[in-house]
């Protein structure tokens, strides 16, 4: 399964959600287009990453060389050096990711109004990560890509509900995750891979579905 995650608004929890989906698959490769996964997972970033690969003409099979072990069943390909990449390489990447069947693939496309269209076309599952915030919802509504589902951070005191989000986006809320200080602490300590808080279980369950 190839899952694409993104958020139209920064700080929504996309990195946490994508990492949780990847870690709870039987075997997976997490592709980090946004750059924060190594810190959240407590692994050292390689000197090169997916963005460097896209700026080269290197064969997709060489992406294996960029895989960093999170544990024996879960691997990470880091973002690498930021900057623009040729449009044609998105198609090469999308074709390759869609052809992987030995592992699940999770892409963290980061904060972006519209993820690269070839990625969203080839993904099996498009998941938007959102806080129930009016500004985020406005951006999500304007996004040209309708996700298959939403991962929603359940923040106390918000006026907007999961039903409001579903009506606005036109897609179901597949997981509601509590805002929980133990998640923030795990991320800050780079311990997401070894000590995942229980509040992430709703996302973990999506990995198996
Ligand atoms: N369920 C949660 N409960 C508490 N804090 C959370 C939760 N999910 C994420 N956070 C915290 O919110 C912050 C943003 O999370 P994260 O980096 O996953 O968001 P993001 O959408 O990937 O951000 P960016 O736009 O920078 O890529 C981090 O400090 C993280 O620890
Ligand atoms: Mg992020």
Q: What key attributes describe this structure?
A:
single chain, 209 residues, alpha/beta, Rossmann fold, 8-stranded mixed beta sheet, 22% strand, binds adenosine-5'-triphosphate, binds magnesium ion
Please tell me about this protein's structure.
This protein is α/β, with parallel strands linked by helices and 209 residues long. It has a single domain, classed as P-loop containing nucleotide triphosphate hydrolases (Rossmann fold, 3-Layer(aba) Sandwich), CATH 3.40.50.300. The chain is built from nine helices and eight strands. It has helices at 14-23, 37-41, 50-54, 87-99, 117-122, 134-142, 162-169, 181-188, 201-208, and strands at residues 2-7, 28-32, 67-71, 74-77, 104-111, 125-130, 149-154, 173-178. The protein has an eight-stranded mixed beta sheet, sandwiched between helices. A hairpin with a 2-residue loop joins β3 (67-71) and β4 (74-77). α1 (14-23) packs across α9 (201-208). The longest helix has 13 residues, at 87-99. The termini are close together. The mean pLDDT is 94. It binds adenosine-5'-triphosphate and magnesium ion (MG).
